[in-house]
Amino acid sequence: MTKTSQTDKIRSGQGFIAALDQSGGSTPKALALYGIEEDEYGSEAEMFDLVHAMRSRIAQAPAFNGDKVLGAILFEMTMDRDIAGKPAAQYLWEERGVVPFLKVDKGLADAADGVKLMKPMPDLDALLTRASAAGIFGTKMRSVIDAASPSGIEAVVAQQFEIGKQILAHGLMPIIEPEVTISIADKAEAEALLMRSLLTHLDALAEPQQVMLKLTLPETANFYAPLVNHPRVLRVVALSGGYSREEANARLAQNTGIIASFSRALTEGLSAKQSDAEFNAALAAAIDDIHKASISG
């Protein structure tokens, strides 16, 4: 029943998915934005303790609940730790009504052919087994598209779907994330190539298999409507991709059926130096803004 309830919440819930999955490479930047500079911790272990404290503070804030936050994407170390005395995924679902996801990729390979594929994941099956046992509902994995390269984009999508099928075999819901870099000159052309490739791979999925898609907000409003309405897609979510929260929300509000899955835009304005009252108020305002944009399309 839990899996059915979580699927229904993600499919039709009026809210968004929080991305709390900064990894080793992006954690120093996330902490700096949170007001903790690199000279304030002396080791990687201390760094991860600090970012877990930040994530725990977010997860326990009064506004961070299933009314507006449908799901949360966790980093592996977060899944392996406790929040308020409970395993993180269990805490999110049982105490907050938030569906837990897990980032499973190991980062990006070197750029080639206008894209960055994902690095190999030789231990993925073992991680997926642990994730399932921990109560994780689904996964997320990210590739990057830096140019309108037909062969590069097809390689990204093919890799994503190949690994997505491996994830489905473990009974987990894959979020496929082929991020298009927002600053490239040929962004619209890249989006057209990406949608064509995604539709081809979605059409090849066997019924009743479904995946989720996490996409950069498009240059043309509702451009991804064929993906939103595809029977093999559970939900389409949007990444903020470097846009400010204000701009990301404005773009999101123009795209019917797409909800947010923001990371930096969610935590914008939060600080370790804030009192609990200040922190909770700032997070509640961010959640309200992102929720409004997610449901207004």
TrEMBL record:
Gene3D superfamilies: Aldolase class I. Its EC number is 4.1.2.13. GO terms for biological process: glycolytic process. It comes from the Bacteria. Pathway: Carbohydrate degradation; glycolysis; D-glyceraldehyde 3-phosphate and glycerone phosphate from D-glucose: step 4/4. It is an enzyme of class 4 (lyase). GO terms for molecular function: fructose-bisphosphate aldolase activity. Keywords: Glycolysis, Lyase. SUPFAM superfamilies: Aldolase. Belongs to the class I fructose-bisphosphate aldolase family. PANTHER family: FRUCTOSE-BISPHOSPHATE ALDOLASE. This is fructose-bisphosphate aldolase. It comes from Roseovarius marisflavi.
